[in-house]
Amino acid sequence: MLRVEGLETAYGLSQVLFGISFEIASGQVTTLLGRNGMGKTTTVHSIMGIVRPRAGSIVFDSRPLHGLASYRVAQSGIGLVPEGRQIFPNLTVRENLVATAANRRDAKAPWTLSRAFELFPQLAERQRHFGNQLSGGEQQMLAIARALMTNPRLLILDEATEGLAPLIRAEIYRSIEQLKASGLAILIIDKDVKALTRLADRHFVLEKGRVVWSGSSDELAASEDVQHRYLGV
Length: 233
Hints:
- By secondary structure, this protein is an alpha/beta fold.
- It has a domain at 1-77 and 155-165 and 185-233: P-loop containing nucleotide triphosphate hydrolases (Rossmann fold), CATH 3.40.50.
- The chain has 10 helices and 10 strands.
- The strands form 2 sheets. It has a 6-stranded mixed sheet with strand order 6-7-8-3-9-10, sandwiched between helices. A 4-stranded antiparallel sheet has the order 2-1-4-5, covered by helices on one side.
- The chain is globular, with a radius of gyration of 17 Å.
- The two termini are 33 Å apart.
């Protein structure tokens, strides 16, 4: 579904990505792992057209994305849950969701308000509250639901559970498991390796803008050296 090959991205004279390559199959949950500052978010921003790569290719559903504006990338069927959530603070929960609702690919079972509230019952209870009145966990739920309302074929979560309490993290992962079961392809950036090895199909580890390891959840769980060398604090 998504193929990234030889991706090189820089901010001015500072190069961040050095030939990143990976693939995500339809219905697959994939992770980008690594310590802070290794290029994970830059990879996501390159895919989404937020920054323009210097070299390489990004192909989604057989369509090249390189050079497209961010809104065109989103319209192609990729939904982003950005780091920091970035919900609209002066809109209610309901308004945040309605603002992004679209079914451009005529999905047979599109995401609706009722379906979003079924996935996150807390949002149904808070639907008339403004975004800045929500807790951090509720804001993350809203950010996920908002991305789903665009009816994406690929959902990207950048720092899926950063800064959230354990119970809320568990709730977010429960929702991701449900999305996986529905057949949605998902790309996750997060630091909870234990939870990710239970959920994801494949992992790509980044170090200084390069993919230094890739493998299955079983392989990552069994490789203490990889976890210590590239993921440990």
